[in-house]
Every structure is written in C-alpha cells, then in structure tokens.
Task: inverse folding
C-alpha cells in the first residue's frame, strides 16, 4: 500500500529503490556487509511490509547472503507478515563453490517473489525477465501485467523458448560461463599485478562485476579518478550512487562482462597509472 | 494525483478505465452520442484533471468527435487546467470522407497527449505503440517509461523502423485499407440483406468494428444471442460491458478485421437465423 515501507539493501540497486518510491512506498535502507543483509540489524521502529534483496550476488557489493541469514530473513518475513522480493539478476554466473538455495526454494510460507532476467545471460535489448510468485498471488500479478502493458511481446518469448527447448541456451550458458570465468581470472590477476595492496576486491565470487575498494583514496577524489580513466578509454564507475550512506574511501564498480582478457589487463594497468598520478 | 478524477467516455474502452483506476484516479463516465463526447454536458460538480477520449473512432460506438466538440473540449481543458489523452487506436482506417484534425494538431496549449498503436494496423503481438506528449512533459514520461520497464524491446522497434523506412509499411497500409474496405462493404451489405430493419448500425465510418443495435431485443436477452451465435461459430460480443449505464436494448460489437467477405456474409446470415429463433 502507498505509505508502507520497503526494506532495501544499502548499497543497492537504484532501479529497485526508484520503483518502490514511484509506487508510493517509503524506503528503509539497511547496510549490507560481507555476508549480505543482516535482518537482525533492522531498527526496532521500522515495520517494512516488503524486503528487496539480491541474495545470490548482492548488487553492487557482490556479497552472497549466508544460509543463516537467509533463514533469519524468511523467519522475519513470517513474523512481520512481509513479502520478500528476491532478485537473482545474474544467478547464472557463479564461480566459487556451489550456489546456495534461493530464498524462494527455502520459503514454506508463500512469501518470496523470485525474479530473474535474461538481460545478463542473453542481452539487455531482449527485455525479457520472469517473476515466480506464490500461487495465491499469480492472478493478481497477471492482471497487473495485463493492465500495465497488455503483455510482453510474444515474438521474443517464442524465439527464446525455441532457443531454450533446442538446447542452444544451455550451450550458450556453458560457453558464457567459461568466457566470463576467464575474464574474471584475468581481472583478478591484473589487479594483483598492477594495483597490489593499494586496493581490496570484493564480490568476485559471482556475477559480472566486482567492487574495487581504494582505502587510501578519499571518496571525494573518486570522481576525478573515474574521469581521468575515462579520458584514457577505461570505463570504471563510482559505487557511491548505490549507497544511502557512501563510505569515506573510493569504491569502484568494475564490470568485465564485455571485455577480453587482454583488454582487461591493459585497462587495469592504465587505471594503476592514473591512480599513481592522482596521489 | 491519486484521488483526482479522470473523465472517460461512456461507453468506452475498459482498458483505459482500469488503468486510471489502478493509478488511483476516480473515473467520471460521460455519455457519448453520435457526435462523440459532449463536454458541455459535464456535471457542474465534476472537476476532472484529465479526459480520456477516442475522437477519431469512439470506442466502441464508432462516433467521430465533431469539430465544434473538439474545439469545446480543448477550451474546457484550458479553463479546467486539465490534460487530454487522445487515443487514436485505429486512426489508420477511415472510410468516409477526410478525417478531422486530431486534437493534438488543434492544441495550442500543450494539453493533449496523443497516443497510437501498431496493434491494429500491424498485429497485437508486436506490442508497439507511441505517445506524443507536449515538450515540457517529455522528460517526465521518458523517466516513467524507464522506471516501468527499462524501455521497450529494441528488436521490434528496429524491425518496424526498417519496415517503415523502406516503404513497406505504406504499401501494407494501402493494401490493408482496401482489404478492410471490402470487408466493411460486405458486412454492411450482409446486414441489409439478412437483418434489414430489425437492426441499426453505428460507427461504420472508421475502424475495424461496428456496433449493431437491436432495438427490439431487450438487453437481458443479448447474452443468450451471443452464446447461440458462438455455438454456431459466429463470434459477436455484447457491447454492454463497455457501458457504465448499459442501454435497455441489445447492442453487439461486430469486428470484421480478420474475416473474408464470404465469411462475413455467412456469419450474418447465421446471426439472423439465431435471432429469428430467439424471438
């Protein structure tokens, strides 16, 4: 309902924050750490009716929500009579160990709405995603979708369905995982080689981006670094806009999904040069 | 704003009514006659901030909004500080005389939002439409669209753009107009031949459907007629759901966009037989 509160991750996906706000909800940001969102830290006064989380690969920190926290979050939803929106936006790309069960699979109370997208695993122009809702909510969401846009184009849906049914999607996914795994390895190696102990990496275990923490570079100097790197054709982004309360040091988002290993190494070398000139 | 009133046509397009309601607006239905919506009949107490109209081919009556009423509606919008949403959903198909200038072309006050669709002139699965908004509103609508769905698929848009740029759309439209004109002529001839003075037709001057009024058949008997026709593979629909206050006699919607002339003649002959059995 309008005026209700929606719990979001801090830092988090600004698209979700904007969507809740546009729907009239107050947003309550809750800080995430290396294990993701800790529902036990929810301020006593906050009464969110909904929590938006990215458990598989927290955006943008890359934290994987630990199993105890998953169970605690589900338990909270039961007690608070709240819904959980689980956004598994790049769950297809996990690199270390087995992925944890999604909240939706652990849910016994029909409280989890699980959503995914083909924007990452295929390409964004496709505009296809999916939302798995508890059975009692299916009719409501189908009606809302019909009202909002009369349904998504059948052309892409049928083309993708054939792509999946014929086995091409599975092959594409396997190749993409290998390719992205090699890019990720190149990125981590380049960071060690060129930046060494000037930086700290987080969120490398899943997804197609990492966070690069520069503990010695004040947040205020981050934008200049991003600008100078861009002048040398290296695209890195400040993570500050994703935070409700940004950290004091510079944090960068490095996306590697569209780059080849040698481009990645060159890019990190340039970033290291720019960083040295900066200080 | 939520709670504001939106003026809609009665009878009218239920998709629009549902959309305004879902947005939190109160809807104020205003009866249309053979010249469309008459803003002079707006009840004194009603203060709509927005009017949703289908001037080119009122849905579902097919009335064309007369020029004096167009000017009166624009004048009302100026005085009431209201916006007008002009839905020209099948403006490509006009059969009698020259079409009138759309409200958007007569608008001197940046109050008209003009929308169209490729669902009728191409096919509904395409899911492409357009909204022409006054320049001061463009940024707002672009932001809302980005927030709602991140933009419509570029694939269909590019394919359609090529289809238009290469001249194929124009050729398709010319052929479609001829084809639909022949179907419309077949429908009107079949109604005269098989139903004669038992019925009255309205809304035949534009669009891909007409309204068939059955003044001697009480509204309560209309559903049975629709059902019996359907049993004999003739698809006609009651217009009653489109009315806030349905008429006392039966009114049917006959769509002819997807039928060949001989199918149309056969269908109307069957409808006449069913109607005779009904009474």
Result:
């Amino acid at each position: 309902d309008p005026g209700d509160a929606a719990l979001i991750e801090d830092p988090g996906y600004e698209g979700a924050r904007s969507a809740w706000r546009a729907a009239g909800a107050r947003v309550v940001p809750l800080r995430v750490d290396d294990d993701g969102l800790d529902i036990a830290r929810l301020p006593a006064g906050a009464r969110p009716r909904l929590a938006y989380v990215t458990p598989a690969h927290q955006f943008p920190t890359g934290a994987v929500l630990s199993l105890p926290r998953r169970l605690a979050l589900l338990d909270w939803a039961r007690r608070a009579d709240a819904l959980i929106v689980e956004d598994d936006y790049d769950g297809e790309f996990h690199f270390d160990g087995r992925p944890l069960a999604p909240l939706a699979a652990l849910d016994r109370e029909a409280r989890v709405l699980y959503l995914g997208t083909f924007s990452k695993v295929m390409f964004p122009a496709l505009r296809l995603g999916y939302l798995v809702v508890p059975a009692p909510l299916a009719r409501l969401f189908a009606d809302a979708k019909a009202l909002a846009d009369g349904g998504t184009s059948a052309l892409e849906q049928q083309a993708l369905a054939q792509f999946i049914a014929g086995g091409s999607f599975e092959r594409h996914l396997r190749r993409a995982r290998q390719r992205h795994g090699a890019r990720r390895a190149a990125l981590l190696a380049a960071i060690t080689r060129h930046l060494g102990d000037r930086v700290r990496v987080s969120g490398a275990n899943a997804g197609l981006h990492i966070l690069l923490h520069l503990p010695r570079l004040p947040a205020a100097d981050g934008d200049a670094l991003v600008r100078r790197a861009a002048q040398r054709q290296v695209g890195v982004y400040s993570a500050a806009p994703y935070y409700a309360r940004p950290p004091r040091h510079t944090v960068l988002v490095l996306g590697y999904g569209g780059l080849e290993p040698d481009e990645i190494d060159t890019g990190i070398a340039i970033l290291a040069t720019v960083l040295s000139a900066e200080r």
